[in-house]
Please model this.
Amino acid sequence: MQRQWTLTYKSNDRAGGRARDGSRHRGAMMTFRTMSRSRRAHLSCVIVMGALIGGCASSNDVTKALNPDPPAKMYAEADAFLAKGYHEEAAKRFEELDRDHPYAPEARRAMVMAAYAFYKAGKHPEAIASARRFTSLHPGSKDAALAHHVVASAYFDDIKDPTHDQTAARRALAELRIITSRYPESPYAKQAENRIRIAEDSIAASEMNVGRYYLKKGQYVAAINRFKVVVAEHQTTQHVEEALHRLVEANVALGIIPEAQSAAAVLGYNYPSSKWYQNSFALLGKQGVKPQESQGSWISRQWKTLAPGAPTASPKPAPASQQPASPTLEPLPPERAPRSDVPTASSTRPARLMGLTAIQ
Model:
């Protein structure tokens, strides 16, 4: 019988592929049937043992998936990993809690804590994605401020020096402003105020670098656009004085004297002792004019500078003690989990505001 099957298989193999596949299946069944009883029993045991070994390897995972631990226990385990400094493992455990018990009270907190754990592990993209997901699902919860804080901190840590791209600084600034505007009473507001000044100073410095480059190359319109950004959007930084003077230079080079006079008037009104005002005053003097507000300039349309008909002050020498100091980067607070004692800035310093009032 076994010889007959072999001959049939060979003939079908010559006949074609479809017949060959069918003959193989029939041949395998006939071979198993023609085996002795002992050999069949041995083969059956081998198959059963293989199935048992494969099942044992995944039985724990299946049991865990079908019967996960209670949410309180899972949260405690994840929090313990976070306290010990195993941030990646903690983030994984928090995400498992959110996945296994999406409607449990602990799941909402676990979502934002996963973002925080990713941030502590240095995985900023994962931290931002997890925190963004939380703010989109729970924008009004009490932990929303923490989620925005994680996003802002991740972007803030990625800020580069002013000679490089400032995308991270701009994104950090947007998140920090959300914290100060929506959550002014949160533990993160004070630190956000300090970081806003640092981010704005970095962005303004970058704009000044590009503006100076255009000014040096004689591309005055491009330079003016850069200096306008500093004057209009970052007027609390130390770069605003130079930006106003560079506007005077660029407009004089283009022959737009009224705009140059207005920029000098704003500079002299707010910083009469500045060296930049002295340079602007001297530059306009070479053109036979003085600083004077022009009602048609963009500065006059955006800001209230001088009272109508007010005389323009001459520049005064600046005492050494009044020279503007460069802002220093404050050290960040020690790392700790954001439970009831969230990290905040140890000290703050008031912003240097221009003496300008926006037109309502």
In short: Confidence is low (pLDDT under 50) at residues 1-20, 55-59, 305-311, 317-360. Residues 111 and 145 are 13 Å apart (CA to CA).
